[in-house]
Amino acid sequence: MNEAYELLRNTVLEQGRVLDGDVLKVDSFLNHQLDVRVLNAIGKLFYQQFGELKIDKILTAEVSGIAIAAIAAQYFQVPVVFAKKTLSKNLDPDTWEGSVYSYTKQQTYQIRVAKRYLGKGEKILILDDFLANGQAIKGMHQIVKESEAVLMGTGVVIEKSFQPGKEMLREKGIHVHSLIKVTSLEKEQIQLGQ
């Protein structure tokens, strides 16, 4: 077994917590407190999967995707662009936009990337922390398509394969590579698949 994969897998199993039956909390190492050793392993794994693609940029969504993409970018030696969830004075008014439905907030919001950071013909790799319902990835794909950039691949750290996201994305022609596949959180136990 790959050393980087083994570190990630063991960390998910040892530090992941199950809440409300279908929520997997990995905030002790991935999306609140950051374990740089684990992030470095994630970066290596994404490079092993996508390193031959000759990408120009990594695209992610704020907030949780930024650390993952930044660490991975060291291996690819490319910039990271992150889609912003809120309008602010420091965001260029000329943006590419994608729609994301939040199941936790029960609302649709727009994510945005300034047009000057994502252009026609650029080779893009999308990375994110989770795949559950697939909405964030769908929104980032809309941005890539709108910008006429070239999508080279999509990767997530953790896929909750018992939720409909991957199937919905597959039906739209979007292939997602998952580093870890969680097959069940029943009885507050994390079950992983291949």
TrEMBL record:
It is found in: Cytoplasm. Pathway: Purine metabolism; XMP biosynthesis via salvage pathway; XMP from xanthine: step 1/1. Homodimer. Coiled coil: none annotated. Belongs to the purine/pyrimidine phosphoribosyltransferase family. Xpt subfamily. Its EC number is 2.4.2.22. One of its GO terms (molecular function) is xanthine phosphoribosyltransferase activity. Residues 38-161 form the Phosphoribosyltransferase domain. Xanthine binds at residues 24, 31, 160. Keywords: Cytoplasm, Glycosyltransferase, Purine salvage, Transferase. This is Xanthine phosphoribosyltransferase. Converts the preformed base xanthine, a product of nucleic acid breakdown, to xanthosine 5'-monophosphate (XMP), so it can be reused for RNA or DNA synthesis. One of its GO terms (biological process) is XMP salvage. 5-phospho-alpha-D-ribose 1-diphosphate binds at residues 132-136. GO terms for cellular component: cytoplasm. It catalyses: XMP + diphosphate = xanthine + 5-phospho-alpha-D-ribose 1-diphosphate. HAMAP family: XPRTase (MF_01184). Its main location: cytoplasm. InterPro entries: PRTase-like, PRTase_dom, Pur/Pyrimidine_PRTase, Xanthine_PRibTrfase.
